[in-house]
Amino acid sequence: MKSNRVQIPVQLLIGAVLFTNVLNPHAIASPLDQLTDLTGRASVTVTLTGRDNFNSEYRYDLTVRNRSNDLLIADSLVIVLEKITNLAGEEREPLKNEPILSRFDIVGQDGETDDGKPFFRVPVGANQDLAPLTDSPPLMIRIRNKDYVSVFTPVFRVYGKKRPPTEPRQSITQAPPGSSTQDRQTEKLIQLLLKKGVITEEEWRKAMQP
């Protein structure tokens, strides 16, 4: 008996998987896997900018402040809504022991972490890096309260990458350790010729090639 099973080309299967991942960004790995928790080195400033009583919706502006001495790569910064606490500072409902965060709708999030926490990408300003003691451009988030509880506090964490320090460029005319007096005199002469423009670094490099 002949089988009615249709053989689907491998190329079509791969294309379907890629297309599914585009439609559902949660199907791919969390982008936080490659980022570092910057707690202590960066903080989130939260400003309440509006409130819709009819929909019980609250609008906030969030900015990231770099409190470290390092440069933070701007397009790597992500803000995670870690938890929401009630008036007593608790993050779980007393009776059901469920996270209070689960009772809220987060509008406009860029995705979720592996454990279901909303995250937002920080806007990139004119600079590629967020310098020490500077703030990022603001981003707006909207939180809807299903239970219409009037007092709650969102708590955020920052993830990202810091810029690796650049290695100082070593001068081509720097004398190696232990060089003789004659070698040091030669180096001084070369530096003088370079300074006066008699020779260029490119000419010097070509001259030193075997």
What secondary-structure arrangement, pairings included, does this model have?
Layout: H1 10-23, E1 36-37, E2 42-52, E3 57-66, E4 72-73, E5 78-85, E6 104-107, E7 111-112, E8 118-121, E9 129-130, E10 139-145, E11 153-160, H2 181-196, H3 201-208
Antiparallel strand pairs: 1-11, 2-3, 3-10, 4-9, 5-8, 5-11, 6-10, 7-8
Question: Your description of this structure?
Answer:
The structure is a single chain. It contains 3 helices and 11 strands. It is of the alpha+beta class. The protein folds into 2 domains: 29-160, Immunoglobulin-like, CATH 2.60.40.290; 179-210, no CATH class. The strands form 3 sheets. The protein has a 5-stranded antiparallel beta sheet, with no helix packed on it. A 4-stranded antiparallel beta sheet has the order 2-3-10-6, with no helix packed on it. A two-stranded antiparallel ribbon has the order 4-9. β7 (111-112) and β8 (118-121) form a beta hairpin. The longest helix is centred in the last third of the chain and has 16 residues, at 181-196. Residues 1-30 have low confidence and may be disordered.
